[in-house]
Design goal:
It is built from twelve helices and no strands. It has 330 residues and is mostly helical.
Length: 330
């Protein structure tokens, strides 16, 4: 499709969106007059068309027009509904899973960068347990073995914590910190995101291999198997969002690097919102479910299977067929 054909095909929608926005600017009661469904639909289609224009390197005047149009619509929609219940429902039922699928290339790269070092380091430490000291100190290794020993009253609890609620807060702080590193370090041309993903893979694999070598696999894997459905997925998605930002800086196409960064950040923030929700869920499961010793292993693994299936189904199927999904998926 030529740029002229592209413009002729979508000109009517652009004019309609501009007319709606102009009407809202001149209205005293924007909330009352907001044609939510149509405005949201036109906005998301404009986002889709902007992404297409970038990909096909269409003329700068078309990209500038679409950027201005989407920026104005974004301001109107999100300033009025950012904290509304309907906005939250829209975010988690459509926007977040569709955004993940739209960034599937980055998601797969982030998955490989995390999983491969995990497996490799896990096998190395399992067969040569002394390699654990290249990742953690001897005291830290001993602490991990104590946390997952058969004699531990509660699995996976650090010694400084005095209850499940304390661990809940600890897990939220720790997990959000890791995810923030994977996302924000994407500003360093994506290299930072790759580093932190690989680092966490090496660290997690080393601990898993070491505890498996010590014969603590029963407690360790029953502890991590459920909440990891949300935690590991959230870390991967954080890294994917960081890679998207890094790629935009490396390859801004016919935009300035600042414009590319703003656009990529706007597209990635939806994923960040979803990641925060997943990390809170993971922390709750980790503190109140995973650490419980009274729970039969069969029940833990059954619930883990349900959680993994639910996360995968949610990210791959949720929002498909919805009119708003078109703005995220090609």
């Amino acid at each position: 499709m030529t740029p002229l054909q592209f413009e002729q095909l979508h000109e009517a929608e652009w004019l309609e969106l501009e007319e709606l926005l102009n009407r809202l600017r001149g209205s005293r009661s924007k909330r009352a007059s907001l044609p939510g469904n149509r405005l949201s639909q036109l906005y998301r289609r404009a986002c889709e068309q902007l992404a297409m224009a970038h990909e096909r390197a269409y003329p700068a005047y078309q990209i500038d027009r679409l950027q201005q149009l989407t920026a104005n619509a974004h301001q109107v929609i999100y300033q009025q509904h950012e904290l509304g219940v309907q906005r939250l429902i829209q975010l988690f039922t459509v926007d977040f899973p569709c955004a993940v699928r739209a960034h599937s290339t980055y998601v797969w790269v982030a998955t490989l960068v995390l999983v491969l070092p995990t497996l490799i380091m896990g096998l190395l430490v399992y067969f040569k347990p002394e390699l654990i000291l290249s990742v953690v100190s001897a005291d830290q290794a001993a602490n991990f073995s104590h946390m997952y020993s058969d004699s531990a009253e509660t699995i996976g609890r650090v010694r400084a914590a005095d209850g499940d609620w304390a661990m809940f807060g600890f897990y939220i702080k720790n997990n959000i910190g890791i995810s923030f590193q994977c996302f924000a370090s994407g500003l360093f041309a994506g290299v930072g995101s790759l580093f932190f993903l690989a680092f966490n893979g090496v660290f997690g694999g080393a601990i898993a291999g070491y505890l498996t070598h010590l014969g603590l696999s029963r407690t360790f894997y029953s502890f991590i198997v459920t909440h990891s459905a949300f935690e590991l997925t959230a870390i991967i998605l954080s890294g994917a969002a960081g890679l998207h930002i890094g790629h935009a800086l490396l390859s801004p196409k016919n935009q300035s690097r600042t414009q590319a960064l703003v656009q990529a950040s706007r597209e990635s923030i939806v994923i960040v919102y979803g990641v925060i929700a997943m990390l809170i869920i993971a922390a709750a499961i980790e503190a109140f479910w995973s650490s419980a010793r009274w729970m039969p292993l069969s029940m833990k693994y059954s619930v883990a299977g349900v959680c993994w299936a639910a996360v995968i189904a949610y990210l791959t199927l949720q929002g498909r067929g919805h009119s708003h999904a078109r703005s995220y998926e090609s």
